[in-house]
Fold this protein.
Amino acid sequence: METNTLTEYIQHLELRLLQSDLNAHPEYIDELLAEDFEEIDNHGQIHTKSDVIDWLKRKDPNLPWVFENFRVKALSDDVVLAVYSLRKTQQSINSAGSIRTSIWHRQGKHWKMVFHQATKLAGASAL
């Protein structure tokens, strides 16, 4: 897959995870998150797949998110690192939001997230 196409596809998967109603579409969970998925939240706490699923099911699926500076770096043929800043659309343009990193692993024909980290930003610039 071409780099631009892969970047767009991984961004689509990230957005699908954030904006889907996982209560209505629980099958998305196994499609998008690897069995051994882990996350470090913006407070430095480590969370399991189960913890993150609980949060994803409680979030508002209608809340739109804005991705900025989304890029993907290939770590191998089947592993990519996504780096981007993210903010909720109701936050002002000067709101820093957070910077995110995700590791995606191609398993068969599907890309699954194996790791995610969120870091709150204190300033207006995300990068």
Q: What stands out?
A: The two ends are 27 Å apart (CA to CA). The longest strand covers residues 110-120.
